[in-house]
Amino acid sequence: MSGKSGKAAAGTALGRVAREARPFLRARTRALVRLGGWSTLEFAQTFLTGLAVARALDDGFLDGRTGTGLAWLALAALAAVPAALATRGVFARLADLVEPLRDGLVRRASAQALHTALTATGPTTAGPVSRITHQSEIARDGWAGLVLALRSFVFTTAGALAGLAALSPRLLLVVLPPLLLGIALFLATLPPMAARQREYLGADEDFAAHAGRAAAALRDIAATGGAARTVAEAERNVRVQATAARALARWAGVRVLALAICGRLPVLLLLFAIPWLTRHGLTGGALVGAFTYLTFSLGPAVYALLSLIGTAGGRLVVVLDRFTGPVRLPAPPTASAPAPAARATAAPVPAVAELRSVDFAYGPAARPVLDRLDLTLRPGDRLAVVGPSGSGKSTLASVLAGVAAPTGGEVRWLGRPAGELDPTAVRTLLPQQPYVFSGTLRDNLRYLRPKARDRELSATVAAIGLDALVERLGGLDTPLDPRRLSPGERQLVALGRAHLTTAPLLILDEATSELDPEAEARAEGALAERAGAVLTIAHRIGSAYRAGRVLVMDGTRTVEGTPAELLDRSALFRDLAGRWSHIPG
Ligand SMILES: Nc1ncnc2c1ncn2[C@@H]1O[C@H](COP(=O)(O)OP(=O)(O)OP(=O)(O)O)[C@@H](O)[C@H]1O
Q: Residue ranges of the ABC transmembrane type-1 domain (predicted)?
């Protein structure tokens, strides 16, 4: 995300949250007024503290009247009692502001979850559960902390400034400028810091998504020789994340400076101003009273508020923004309304997989392998891909499977950007060299769907043509040694695995090359019966004819059509079909 767009996103998040907060606060004016009422006691305590110290010194101890001095100090100590009562009252009233927020967020997240469940076409995520449980609690705690700190800041600062003014209005000339400058600088850091925070989180999510995809596709990556590319992509993600973290750290430095300006600079300036203030009649007691305000009241209140805004405040905005998505529950069905199933059939079915103007090159200076390729696979589609060696068929398979990221354009699955979905739930990619591990045939077949039932296994064995292998091994539960299976048997095991998965997209990259034509036709027929779409990189012309739809790849040029159309339109397809016709299948 660029700095500019990050800033815009953060700005809109802040704006959205502010817009949503206004009616919430308006509806709770009474709770706010009561909270303010209790907080005035805090104002009084702060105001009294510095003033009592000044009087204790000027009228008492420095004047030789110890009793008067002690009486003023006792008054300051007594002021803590109503302030303690105020804290009790504040906490009791806090619930009126905090609990409705949590309840409202939970209601909203539940509605969002229902909306998503009723309308989403792809696999659902755990996001709504997190919003209902964890994120609503973060919002509640963050909001409570912010209300407490903001209230304390307003009343303590007002009490301290009123006390300083009562001691001598000149004190405000010394204290106010650094205070206001520090706060202004701090507020100026908020939008860029929110933007950097967002960039950092985005980079973190990208890295996690890449790691998840890579972990799920380790075998495919090893088979297609994509390890170096996967590592390079991970390194790129790490670099982006490190840049975002450094930018965030720089802004954190500016924030520390802002805190120092408003928390510490007033004390320093007051020290420098002592000669000037005393020349204008400020007494020793008033000076100590002023330092009391700065070090015991103003400094801690400023520090507490600004650091809370910096931590919980940022989290609060990010979390609240996640709740402000659209919530539109579909109207309950009426007698005259069509049933959901009927509506579903009327709605356009999203493509299982889609390439939108996809480019791919193996390096910045490398010749592109895919050039603005558009491809749509709908449920029930069978597409065979043919082309000479090196024309990009395996590259297309990797990009469609989400193993290789396109250098341009977009890969979509089930109507959504591929990066948003769990690849293992959407697609199964079978390479030419399949993986069979030591273990039973049952374990091998259930590798992608560990909970497959026995009758489903039996159906797969029969459909793919694995019965002979099961018989030879002596049953599904006999341990097998992968090295003792023939290449064709290994491919049959992998095809059985693919037959058992529920992934709606199957990509076969010459995955039947070691089978004889009959076995290949049988396995392809069985896979074609599954729901979803199948893309087959054809090894024989039979695959192209069975698929009924063919994509011919010739360099970056592609032609698509039925075999009959292509015999007419594509010299390359005619050539390949002619060559293949000498090979049985
Ligand atoms: N990891 C890689 N790094 C660099 N170039 C690559 C890489 N993999 C493939 N290529 C190049 O990309 C182009 C397309 O290769 P790809 O393997 O997709 O073609 P193909 O049609 O599947 O070939 P075949 O039928 O021989 O398997 C070729 O020029 C190939 O040399």
A: 46-300
> Does residue 389's CB lie within 6 angstroms of at least one atom of ligand 1?
yes
Structural contact between residues 291 and 270, judged by C-beta atoms closer than 8 angstroms: yes
| 340: in domain | no
| Any atom of ligand 1 within 6 Å of the Cβ of 392 | yes
| Residue 77 counted as domain residue | yes
Residue 219 belongs to a domain: yes
Of 323, 340, 363, the last residue of a domain is 323
Torsional sign, CA 150, 152, 153, 157: positive
Residue whose CB lies within 8 A of the most ligand 1 atoms, among 358, 395, 429, for a mutation test: 395
Question: pLDDT digit string (tens) for 323-358?
Answer: 655 444 333 333 333 444 444 444 456 789 999 999
Residue 143 sits at the vertex; the CA angle it makes with 142 and 147, to the nearest 5 degrees, is 120
Same domain, 383 and 318: no
433 pocket-lining for ligand 1 (C-beta < 6 Å): no
Would the CB of 501 count as within 6 Å of ligand 1? no
Say yes or no: 359 and 312 in one domain.
Answer: no
Q: Judge if the beta carbon of residue 365 lies within 6 A of ligand 1.
A: no
Q: Which atom of ligand 1 is nearest to the CA of 228?
A: 1
Q: Which of 371, 393, 433, 556 should be mutated for ligand 1, with most atoms under 8 A from CB?
A: 393
Q: 515: domain range?
A: 353-580
In this predicted complex, what is the ipTM?
0.96
434 CB less than 6 Å from ligand 1?
no
Same domain, 308 and 360: no
CA of 392 to the centre of ligand 1 (A): 6
Residues 133 and 186 in one domain: yes
Residue owning the nearest CA to atom 23 of ligand 1: 390
Instruction: Return the H-helix or E-strand segment holding 273.
Output: helix 265-279
- pLDDT score for 80: 84
State the CATH number of the domain containing residue 415.
Answer: 3.40.50.300
Does the CB atom of residue 395 touch ligand 1 within 6 A? yes
Residues 6+ apart with CB under 8 A from 193: 248, 251, 252, 255, 310, 314
Same-domain pairing of 441 and 575 = yes
Structural domains counted in the chain = 2
Q: How many CB atoms lie within 10 A of CB 325?
A: 13
DSSP 330-396: PPPP-SSSPPHHHHHHHSPPPPSEEEEEEEE-SSTTSPPSEEEEEEEE-TT-EEEEE--TTSSHHHH
